[in-house]
Amino acid sequence: MYRVGDYVYFENSSSNPYLIRRIEELNKTANGNVEAKVVCLFRRRDISGNLNTLADSNAREFEEESKQPTPSEQQKHQLKHRELFLSRQFESLPATHIRGKCNVTLLNETDVLAGYLDKEDCFFYSLVFDPVQKTLLADQGEIRVGSKYQAEIPDKLADDNRIQEKLETKVWDPINQLKDPQIDQFLVVARAVGTFARALDCSSSIRQPSLHMSAAAASRDITLFHAMDTLQKNDYDLAKAMSTLVPQGGPVLCRDEMEEWSASEAMLFEEALEKYGKDFNDIRQDFLPWKSLASVVQFYYMWKTTDRYIQQKRLKAAEADSKLKQVYIPTYTKPNPNQIMVPGSKPGMNGATGFQKGLSCESCHTAQSPQWYAWGPPNMQCRLCASCWIYWKKYGGLKTPTQLEEKRETLTQQDNDELRPRGHMTRQEVQGMSPFTRNEGRAKLLAKNRQTFILQTTKLTRVARRVCEDLLQPRRAARRPYASINANAKTIFQV
């Protein structure tokens, strides 16, 4: 049973190692299949050589700071297989490709690295990989100490003689000469003035064509705040406050962001909120550039008080309830295409068709295994035992370092930090690897039939190259391979 939040193995190729992903969502498609929206985690073999060097440097710093016991070379090799790099990249994969669970934890300074080797299906990560920018960053914050990071507190310069009360602005005095019923009556008058002001305003009449909508808009907090502020400024004198609400030019109209925004702008905001979440900078930049950031933030918190927000919240809750919380994937029992089968005999015996007898496992060098698996390029005739094959699929490497892996790391750094498939190696590279050319039988197997030839020139031709050098100009001719040489002049000179 697999649930949201589990770290799982995904198989996208029968010969490549498993992908390690974290399940974020489980969705059922229209045809009834289940797809998993997952977070991508990358192995060392998936990133460039430069970033691997950076990861090695980070690992050495971790060992020094946490005073880790020095691991052996083989432990260092296997620990690289246990290290992952988290990313913010999502993808959707069929749930039927899940091949099992694993555990991935954030590396803590109290952890002992060698302890991960004793646990099956356990991985750790400390850096975050950005597949777009090709960068590695620390996943957790760090408290930095020093003058570069902390402000230096200066000595006391002088006493602050300012009167703090004069720096404050009083907006309401609860101890005033008005009683609560009088204040409530004044607020009712303020709402009525706001409704009348909206009737006189042409733009408000278009947005709130009915009296009911105008009265509702006039009852919002912006009108009440203006009324209470008017009382404070007029020392709670109702007569003066009334005249302030309705000056000679007409009633005062107070509007908040809910009224300032049009219906189309509100729809744009909801669309942006669905796409970006509460990232107001991106919302303003991509959808509402004519609005200020303060206006967008204020509208958001007012929008949350509307029925529109409540409806969307209910829809999201219903959608979340309809999503799958877990899915059952039966154990995958189909044979792997890389299994070495012998016609007419049991699977996994030595002497498979196309393979030489007596070849050992490329990782542990054992010659006996209940099942063998082809590994690497077909022309290399390499194979792994059952135990090492499972290790390869889960951890993305071999138990012991081989020259093939070292060659692959070199190719990774040379080919513009991109891993070149093993099947694309040149014959010279293949023959230069001692694990695959250590016996004559395999070397003969790898050799290809090529027709040999020799270019033999006459003495006259060799002499003409030197004698007619000023006419032929071989250096210039070499730079112009498609230009013809004046053979007549050469012949006349020879005669």
TrEMBL record:
Keyword annotations of the record: Acetylation, DNA-binding, Isopeptide bond, Metal-binding, Nucleus, Phosphoprotein, Ubl conjugation, Zinc, Zinc-finger
Please provide, in alphabetical order, the Gene Ontology terms of the cellular component aspect for this entry: NuRD complex
Question: Where does the BAH domain start and stop, copy by copy?
Answer: 1-140
**Pfam families recorded:** BAH (PF01426), ELM2 (PF01448), GATA (PF00320), MTA_R1 (PF17226), Myb_DNA-binding (PF00249)
Gene Ontology MF terms in the entry? chromatin binding; histone deacetylase binding; sequence-specific DNA binding; transcription coactivator activity; transcription corepressor activity; zinc ion binding
SANT domain boundaries: 256-308
| Family, as annotated | Belongs to the metastasis-associated protein family.
What name does UniProt use for this protein?
Metastasis associated 1 family, member 2
